[in-house]
Amino acid sequence: MNLIETKGLAKQFNETAAVKDLNLSVREGACTALLGPNGAGKTTALNMLTGLMKPTDGTIHFHANYPGDRREYLGYLPQHPKFFGWMSGLEYVTFAAQLAGLEKEEAVARAKEMLDLVGLTDNRAKKTAGYSGGMKQRLGIAQALVHSPKMIMLDEPVSALDPIGRREILELMKELKKRTSILFSTHVLHDAEEVSDDIYIMKKGEVVAEGSLVSLQEKYRQPAIVIETERNLADWAQLIEDKAWLRHMNTEETKATLTVENIENARTELLNDSSLQQLNIVKFEVMKTSLEDLFMQVMN
C-alpha cells in the first residue's frame, strides 16, 4: 500500500516555482529516492511532506491506517542537522525521544537501542562535539528512528561524507529498509541506484521520470559499447556519426561511449573497422547504459 501520496503539490516563492505539480507515492516498506541536481526542488518537497513548510497548492495524504497528525509517524534528518555539542549521543537521542512524547525511562531505553542499531554503542557517552561527520549522520538517523516512525525522510544523507562514511550510511540504509519506509533525496546517482526501490527524478521543480528501479532500467537502459584507444579518436568518431545503428555517441579524446540500436550489427562493424584498428584499441566493452546515463538523458 502507499504510505503517503501527494497530488498536484506545489510551492511558490514570489516568482520562483520551487516545486510544480508533484504527484508522489511512497510505498510502505520501500526505499524511495528523490534524485536530481542541486536546485531541483528536492529539499522543498521534503519540507512540505514533513510539515515544516506549507504548500502553495496541492494535497498530502497519509494512509488512513495512521490517523491524526502525520508528523507522529515521520522521522526526519535534514541535510544540515544541528547538534548540541555539550550533549552526549545518548542524551541527544533521549532528548529527541522525549520531544516525541516518550516517558523518560522508555526514552532512554529506545535511545540506547537506536544507538546500538546505528553502530554508536561505544560512543554514546561521548559529547557530540567530538563526533566525526559520519558519526553525526548516524546519530541523526538514530534520533529520526527513536519514536518508531512508519517512515523516515533523509535529506542528502551522504553528500557531505568521505568515502568511508558514505559506505557506512548506505549499508545502514539497506538495513533500515527492513524496519521502516525510507524517502531520501540525493544528487549522487550511484547511491540512489544502490539502495532505492523506487525513484523520482526531478528537474527544476518537476518530476521528469519516475518508476521502480527495475522498470526505469528496463525502459531507459540501452545497449552500449565503450571503446578506448591509444590515439585520439575524434576524427574517427566523425566517420561513424551517420551509422544506422548509432543512437548517441559521447567522445573524450581517447574514449568513446556509443549507445546503439542493434548491438550485434554495431559490434561486428566496429571490430572490422580498419580505421578504428589503426588507433590501437586498448578496450572494447559491450555493456548496458546505467542509471547515470538515464539521469543525463532526462536532464538534457
Automatic annotation (TrEMBL):
Molecular function terms, GO-annotated: ATP binding; ATP hydrolysis activity
One of the Pfam families matching this protein, by short name: ABC_tran
Top-level taxon of origin: Bacteria
Lineage start: Bacteria, Bacillati, Bacillota, Bacilli, Bacillales
CDD domains in the cross-refs: ABC_DR_subfamily_A
Homology family: Belongs to the ABC transporter superfamily.
Gene3D superfamilies: P-loop containing nucleotide triphosphate hydrolases
Annotated protein name in UniProt: ABC-2 type transport system ATP-binding protein
Domain ABC transporter per the UniProt entry, residue ranges: 4-229
Annotated keywords: ATP-binding, Nucleotide-binding, Transport
